[in-house]
Structure prediction request, 271 residues.
Amino acid sequence: MTAAPLAGRRILVTRAPHQAGELVRLLREHDAIPVEVPVLEIAPPQDFASLDAALAALADQKNASSQPAFDWLLLTSANAVQAMVARAAALGLPLPASHTGGVPAIAAIGKATAAAARQAGFSVSLVPEQAVGESLAAALAPLVPGRRLLLVRAAAARDILPDSLRAAGATVVLAEAYRNVVPESSIPLLVQAAEQGMDAATFTSSSSVTHLAALAAAAGMEFPLRPLPAISIGPITTATLLQHNWSPAAEAASADIPALLDAAKSIFSAR
Prediction:
């Protein structure tokens, strides 16, 4: 009987602990050994001013019959949803549940973000086919000329989405809800993982690449972690890997965890 392609393989998982569950579970179901080294930790923004102002405007919009402050609310990650909800609760401000056709209409960048938004009580009107900023911008472009959009996102996020929407004629207000930081506690975890050996590394975002690079530097390790094969969740993450001179051995067919697992299987099935 032929062994499963991932059986006994030690696979590096770089996701934050609260987001790693699905990938860890699927790897174990395929007899792989997840090596968890979180390279991302969620921290509050350095300044809540933009988020607090946006939340206050949303609250006023909910209670007023005048011109709405925002026509669309754009959510770019599950972390953005959770951070926004937590801050609104801390300030005692209501959030718009919305409904299809309501104001503000709510757009989520992908299925995972949409699920987090619905769990938080939002009704999501738009989810693009691909979970990347370019796809969300393309889906929104014909809908937003002359409209005011609130984009809730991480600090230091890519500007492709707001730049594209402004080019389409929208006014885009940015609200930083959280920061991705490198957890110092993961430095010894990475050193130990390297000493014990790994068979592949998975990457679920551009930030996971840049933060692993920072973690490796802090641990005194070379980056890329060659000859370790890199597995990318999609073209944006692949581009970041290439910027770090690490050509991925496989890229997921779609930006989700099951497709990332399939990409990992494809590497070892070919060996």
Summary: The longest strand covers residues 171-181.
